[in-house]
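Posting this for the archive.
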Amino acid sequence: MRILKRLFGTDGVRGLVNEELSVEISMKISNAVARMFSGKYNTLLIASDTRNSKEMLEYALTAGALSAGMDVEYCGVMPTPTLAYLTKEKATVGIMISASHNPASYNGLKVLKEGFKISDETEIDVEKLVLEGEMDYVPYGEVGKIKKDDLKNIYIDYIVKNFKNINYKGKIAVDVGNGAAGAVINEIFSSLNLDYDVFYNEPDGFNINENCGSTQPDKLSHIVIENKYDLGILYDGDADRCLFIDKNGMLVDGDKLIAINALKLKKQGRLKNDSVVTTVMSNLGFEKFLNDNEINLLRTNVGDKYVLEKMMEKKIVIGGEQSGHIIFFDKSTTGDGILTSLETLESITLKNKDIHEIVEEIPNYPQVLKNISVKNKIEIMQNEKIKKLKEKFESQENLRVVLRASGTEHKIRVMVEGKDEKLVEKVANEFCEEIEYIENSI
């Protein structure tokens, strides 16, 4: 049964600063978190990416937690996976202030508990305290205290220790998107003796993800080509995503990164159950490549939360999304862009090939994605004509159809992919025409 939430989405609370995400809401959320975990955890860790609203929200979260009797420890600017690792190591709870790949006008709050995002059920409990009641205040003698510490070094040491034998010799261009990766990238890459240059690492509070980072790869693509780098690495604002650029300026997406690393994990004996997890959006050619290498692919709905749930259920080590949000569960509890980039550099080194040569081995089937605006997306998804049309094409080999109602807009998303580009376009158009006909008939 789907749990309906009013504040939390698939990745925490997120919205426009001082509109959907206010000081009041933030203070109530941390107050609720402190009340819920009182007695189990004594300290709330708070970290952020580089947005200009970070201090405002940090102070609001601090006030909410202290007033409920929980101590607060400031961690400063760091990636989301860094804070996740720290909450696990210190066996406590934390809140990350970040809106990930969104522009600076947005911010968000991700609640983490011992390495993991809190469950849907816990989010519902937090929402009840925030929306249905007043804040709770402890007596003056029990008010929490503030501590500041440079805890990111614990994470840096962990990453460096895990990749101390990496031996990649190519020249790397790194785009940190004026975001949180910039706070740790030099300490990690220099300690591993990598040959690299960092770009877009001058955050001013407003330029995070602005024409840079994993959602805007064109700038780094030009840098790689013009300056003859062997490859480029792109992170998003809070560094839980990672994508690559090959030396020809072509983007290497999450599907291909998962494929490259899955083969290595299998050789290393790390690929439990010879399986990986991705979403319904992953390319059919990618799936065929895995199957040809005796690796199974399990698919979930779109969202890293669902990927992680399936990985834990089936005891699978690697999973992720085309966006570059990739989880190596034997080393991290969440998607970690920096860890992903180092795993990939190690995989490339072991292959002794350029990344563009490796990627050429992975087929990429033609894929068409169309969005159709509708009034009643649920009624259309349940229409018998749509169901029969889907059944008609699902039986065809080397063809895949994904229909899903948008979770945020009044749209039906149609994704068709297969070996035959003309057939893919024809099938996509047939679905669009049928959906539009039904929409006009309602």
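The chain has three domains: 13-149, 155-359, 367-441. The mean pLDDT is 93.
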